[in-house]
Amino acid sequence: MKWIKKGLVFFTDRQAGWMNSHAQCPTAIVLKDRIRIYFSARLPNQQSLPTFIDVEIDNPLRIMNINKIPILEMGRKGTFDENGIIPSYIVRKDNKVYLYYAGWSQCKNVPYKNFTGLAISSDEGETFEKYSEAPVFTMNEHNPLSATGPCIVQIENKYRALYSTGVDWVQVEDKLEHTYLLTDACSEDGVFWKTSGKIVVNPVFENEADCKPAVFKHGGLYHLW
Fold first, then answer.
1. CA distances from 181 to 3, 102, 167, 207, 211 (A)
2. Helix, strand or coil for residue 198?
3. How many CB atoms lie within 10 A of CB 162?
4. Of all helices (H) and strands (E), which one includes residue 73?
5. Strands (E), the chain
């Protein structure tokens, strides 16, 4: 598969005032007449909120629309997404759009925790409502630190997710850096997930941070990027 680099499509320039910087973690869905690209922009305090742009299908360098309102707001104090929201993956299910997102909460002894929430749209991804105040990939015996960045595929009538589980925090000079490895989970409905605790890609180097997996099917086989 040969890729053609097209260059910069969009950058934040204080559109609507709140988009202070960044257009991070782009996550796209193809609609009838456009490609909708979700991303998170950073506020002046460096916390993130998600929105989207629409680009032409035949010419994705041409922006058709910039959505100037965040599609989700941060959770109330104490919830897993009280300090930021970043899109992770999109699934179409039952004529709805399921958006899985990373929720960030700041901590005292380490910089943050990040777990995965779910928001659902009934209008082709224009607006979303959070499924719950709680994450759907959450802290358990397999994910003691983090559970984030899933890639989800439907195999027959079940869903399988590959995602990053937090392994450790490592001191690098004057900063703590998070390490991650890839694990998996399965679900009947895309909401309630059974985690395996199995590491699906063995690390090659010490203190790896394996994040944002991408899975596609080609030649009858599933490939992982």
1. 27, 16, 7, 9, 7
2. strand
3. 22
4. none
5. 21-30, 35-42, 48-55, 63-66, 85-93, 96-106, 112-121, 129-130, 147-155, 158-172, 175-187, 193-199, 215-218, 221-224
Fill in the amino acid letter for 203.
P
Judged by phi (left if over 0) then psi (alpha if -120 to 50, else beta), residue 133 lies in alpha
- Are β-strands 85-93 and 63-66 bridged in parallel, bridged antiparallel, or unpaired? unpaired
Instruction: Count Cβ neighbours within 10 Å for each residue of 128-139 and write b for 16 or more, e otherwise.
Output: bebbeeebbbee
How far is residue 173's CA from residue 175's CA, in Å, rounded to a whole number? 6
d(CA 114, CA 79): 11
pTM over 0.90, yes/no: yes
Distance (Å, whole) CA 5 – CA 10: 14
Query: pLDDT tens digits for 128-176?
Result: 999 999 999 999 999 999 999 999 999 988 999 999 999 999 999 999 9
Q: Which two tokens stand for residue 212?
A: 């944002």
Q: Encode pLDDT of 44-78 as tens digits.
A: 999 999 999 999 999 999 999 999 999 999 999 99
> How far is the CA of 42 from the CAs of 29, 91, 108, 123, 176, in angstroms?
22, 25, 22, 25, 21
Secondary structure of 119-173 in HEC code, one letter for each residue: EEECCCCCCCEECCCCCCECCCCCCCCCEEEEEEEEECCEEEEEEEEEEEEEEEC
Q: pLDDT-derived band of residue 1, with 50, 70 and 90 as boundaries?
A: low
Residues paired with residue 27 on neighbouring β-strands, in sequence order? 38
